[in-house]
Predict the 3D structure of the following.
Amino acid sequence: MRIAVLASGRGSNLGALIDAQRGGNLPVHIVGVFSDKPSAPALALARESNIPTAHLDPRDFAQRLAFDLAAFATIAKWKPELIVLAGFMRILDPRAFEPWLGRIINIHPSLLPKYPGLHTHRRVLAAGDRQHGASVHFVTAELDGGPVLAQVMVDVRRGDTEQGLAERLLPREHALIVACVDQLARNRLYWSNEGIRMDGQPLACPLVLADDGTLETRA
Ligand code: GRF
């Protein structure tokens, strides 16, 4: 499956996808990496990995929608079959990604529907939650609000800091995004008009990442 990745920063989720693909464990071709930040380390990582890159600077556009349309026009040239938002830190205008509905996913560091938006680790600690995690969802007009494909959980420990919690979650995020892209690439998991389907069956609730890196239905 041809995938394009959008990233604004560090690019560790991109790195996980590249490593899995190189290791022969992920049947994808990463056709391009797009960023809204010319200096994003994710772009440097893509270049080092000989993956085509593109970036556009939002400051060069008078309106948000104009930037978003230009971004998707750029991405469309790579002819991706799936677009993966992996740390892409801009809110996109739904009019720009409407043609991609059902073919665009995002990884978000919380157990959605809890904590859409920013500072999720801080908010989990402030609320005294015992469990945290990450979600992969289809992108829709609602911010971090589209149907969730799969989640991974981590326990919140006594004395956890925002940074400590983020560091503990990150490798699990990597496994989650790789597992989701894998299942999408194998056409086992897909969006249908009636909701997400797994092996042809409607998914009643999000899949859960097991310790061995596979996705399981919730017991
Ligand atoms: C991840 O925590 C992801 O869930 C969130 O932004 C972060 C991106 O990290 N959307 P990286 O750029 O992939 O390292």
In short: The pocket of 5-O-phosphono-beta-D-ribofuranosylamine is lined by residues 7, 9-13, 42, 86-87, 107-109, 134, 173 (CB under 6 Å). The chain has a mean pLDDT of 97. The radius of gyration is 17 Å. The first helix runs from residue 12 to 22.
